[in-house]
Design a protein that fits this description.
Layout (H helix, E strand, L loop, with lengths): L2 E2 L2 H20 L6 E7 L3 H15 L4 E7 L5 H13 L5 E4 L9 H7 L11 H9 L8 H12 L8 E5 L6 H10 L3 E5 L6 H5 L4 E4 L17 E4 L3 E2 L6 E2 L4 H4 L5 E2 L6 H19 L1
Parallel strand pairs: 1-11, 2-3, 2-4, 5-6, 5-7, 7-8, 8-11
Antiparallel strand pairs: 9-10
Length: 282
């Protein structure tokens, strides 16, 4: 039976450190503040906003909610972002996406100050990941993967790691982070030929393909650590699940993160920590 790498203990450990950091800032009269920018009233975005707010306020981080009408113009939206860049009382900005189709998300991302880009969506933030510098904030989800590996004492140095997925949101940053930990990394994707033969040879597998329970028992071998980034609704069971078919894979591998209760639960804590780090830098 595999060790289940639950996110809750990771979050608890992070919260303890964040509370201390917020208290230290408070002695200097600084309240770390996150601005959540939402355009329209998508139910999934409102739900995520509530979750992020709860996680932030639990450790003393203030949250400003900026809800803009769906019909807002590109120019007006850009002006709001520029205003947040200039506001010294705001240390981090979370722009909920996707934006309505008529708006250019790319333009907005490039206006946002990387120093306040706590979700790691700007080119400046990603450049920091690929250059190995820590001057900006990496995307929260791959950072959460690394937090789980660190918390459970899973050594990356000298290990063979396979990342299934090549997005700029998870796959590519995760590969860079693993290399920074001195792992030897292979990046695979949906067009990779004979993917199971590659994943079976890895010590660590990060599954971020974005396909419902697509990685089954044949993809894995004993002794592996599996981090499942996927989050989907299973059409048959109507339950949340990941990219990995957990029930098949868990009896085979040494350690695996669950869905739900794994990477996703750590991701919002990473976001909050980035806000605190931004306040410390400011």
């Amino acid at each position: 039976m595999a060790q289940v790498l639950k996110g809750a203990p990771v979050v608890d450990a992070m919260n303890e450190r964040m509370v201390e950091a917020v208290a230290s800032l408070g002695k200097k009269g600084v309240v770390p503040t996150l601005a959540v920018l939402r355009v329209g009233d998508r139910a999934d975005q409102i739900s995520y906003e509530k979750g992020a707010t709860k996680r932030a306020e639990a450790v003393g981080v203030a949250v400003q909610h900026i809800a803009l009408p769906e019909e807002i113009s590109q120019i007006a939206l850009m002006a709001v972002v520029k205003g947040l860049n200039a506001d010294k009382g705001v240390h981090g900005v979370l722009m909920l996406h996707p934006l309505p189709e008529r708006l250019s998300e790319e333009e907005v991302r490039q206006v946002l100050d990387p120093a306040k880009d706590v979700d790691g969506i700007t080119d400046g933030s990603l450049a920091g990941v690929f250059s190995g510098l820590d001057e900006s904030f990496a995307p929260c989800t791959p950072t959460a993967c690394m937090e789980i590996l660190d918390h459970y004492g899973i050594e990356c140095q000298g290990k063979r790691a396979v990342v299934v997925g090549r997005s700029l949101v998870v796959g590519k940053p995760a590969a860079m982070m693993l290399m920074k930990k001195n792992a030897t990394v292979t990046v695979c994707h949906t067009k990779t030929v004979d993917l199971p033969s590659i994943t079976r040879e890895a010590d660590i597998v990060i599954a971020a393909a974005g396909q419902v329970e697509s990685l089954t028992a044949e993809y894995f071998s004993p002794g592996q650590t599996v981090i499942d980034v996927g989050i989907h609704m299973n059409a048959e069971t109507h339950k949340l699940c990941g990219d990995v078919k957990f029930d098949e894979v868990e009896p085979i591998v040494a350690a695996i993160s669950p869905v739900p209760g794994g990477v996703g639960s750590v991701t919002s804590s990473v976001l909050v920590r980035h806000v605190i780090e931004s306040a410390l830098r400011a």
